[in-house]
Amino acid sequence: MQEEIYFYYTSDLHSYFDNWPRIIHFLNEKITERRKNNQAYYLLDNGDHIDRVNPITEALKGKGNVDLLNKANYDVVTIGNNEGITLTKKELFDLYDQAKFTVVCANLSSQSDEQPNWLKPYQILSTDSAVRVAIVGLTAPFTAFYSPLGWDIHDPLETLARYIEEIKQQSDIVLLLSHLGVDQDEVIAEQFPDLDVIIGGHTHHLFESEEYFNQTISTAVGKSGYYVGEIQLIWDHDQKTLIDKKATAHPTQDDLEDSKTIELISRHRFETDRLLNKKIVTLTEPLEVDWFKETYLIKQLAHTLKTWTNADAAMLNAGILLQGFEQGVVTELDVHSNCPHPINPCLVTLTGQELLEVVRAGLTKAYRQLQVKGYGFRGKVMGALVYADVEFEMKYDNEGNEYVESLLIGNEPLDVNKMYRLATADMFTFGHLSPQISRAQSKQFFMPEFIRDLLQLTLKRIAEKS
């Protein structure tokens, strides 16, 4: 006898709720089909379901997302970095208290003796015919961010090696919810051939059908809920083995939405407006934002960042502020709309020479117009780099090329050999946005504060001066 077992999954929704009613419509149709054919099915989520760029997630601290997953009758989820490092320790500790699903993340633990009741390394599911499926979860190990929040995040490969034999003894099929990225998934498939399926995420890659990494199939649905994953496994009861496995990424349809889900999101949006409609300040004049030049607001925000971190200097990109503020009352929702990024302040130590290279790179037209995706940034372009306590004089060479002739740090000439503490946004510590900053040996991340928390302080100081 052969049995078909189905899994449906989402990954990296990032609180893009416009697509959630379409996802639920798709899932409801598939569930109806599975029930009609008396086939086993399970619903899974692969992390980064939440993203505080969305006001609903910001106001409800992710519990609205949990409610959506509950109402959809999800079975097992793992956490991504947006669940893990954009909430305070208490907010994450309490996030899944009302969850009706199981949360699996094998490489996360609290630094304190008390662990969340919801946190499990893996879950064993059993079909009506007693086929046992293990669902194990792993998330990206951003140690520098988890540790200040009170969490230990462990190496995924070492963690999986510790659990794999235990899991194999309890299961017939092993499925990994991997919020690690496609490159890491290939490494895992190479080292752990007992894995039958890897559901991939974090790097927002899309596999429209299954990809084979050795004997393991990998599947992924990109970002924001434009696709839903379907996995079909065929178990042979006579041979007691898995004889086939397939995966498909199905696009969601714009014109097919679940009306009850639309109503649920609307209720959460109404509650969000109530919670975030809190006055911060009253401005006597508007504050403009311009991505390609230094404005009063971004300059003052850079000074707040420098003072708050006790740095020698500070740097922010003008593109981190999206729309400015009108004269009158400014609410928490207004601040969130202007600076929605889940980006933390950080402090890096650079040599004077490295700091000079950062300044030079930021002056190019290509850098200012760079379209930034990821790294927590939820805007459009980098924009001009704006500084606190960094002044420089520009000159032109004989061929008309502009260059930095002199640079001052706190009214003192730059010493290329001296070490300086530069406060900035944590996004510059990742990847290619600033090689000098990403290579810095000393990095201090301020958690759980976001740049928008410092924007609130800045607005209050501006209002006090007026």
Quickly describe the structure:
This protein is α/β, with parallel strands linked by helices. The chain has helices at 20-36, 55-60, 63-71, 81-85, 89-95, 143-146, 156-170, 182-191, 259-276, 296-309, 332-338, 352-362, 365-368, 435-438, 451-465, and strands at residues 2-10, 40-45, 76-77, 102-104, 108-110, 119-120, 122-126, 132-139, 151-153, 173-179, 197-200, 206-213, 216-221, 227-236, 241-251, 279-283, 313-317, 328-331, 345-351, 385-388, 390-396, 402-409, 412-413, 419-425, 443-445. It starts with a strand and ends with a helix.
What is the CATH fold-level name of the largest domain? Purple Acid Phosphatase, chain A, domain 2
N-end to C-end Cα span: 79 Å
Query: How many strands, which pairing sense, and closed or not: the largest β-sheet?
Result: 7 strands, mixed
Q: List the uncertain runs.
A: none
* Reported CATH architecture of the largest domain: 4-Layer Sandwich
Number of helices: 15
The fraction of residues in strands falls at 25-35%
CATH homologous superfamily classification of the largest domain = Metallo-dependent phosphatases
Envelope shape: globular
Radius of gyration, in angstroms, nearest whole number: 25 Å
Number of strands: 25
**Can you tell me the CATH class of the largest domain?**
Alpha Beta
Q: Order of strands across the widest beta sheet?
A: 6-4-3-2-1-14-15
Mean pLDDT: 95
- Structural class from helices and strands? alpha/beta
How many domains? The number is: 2
Helix coverage percent of residues?
25-40%
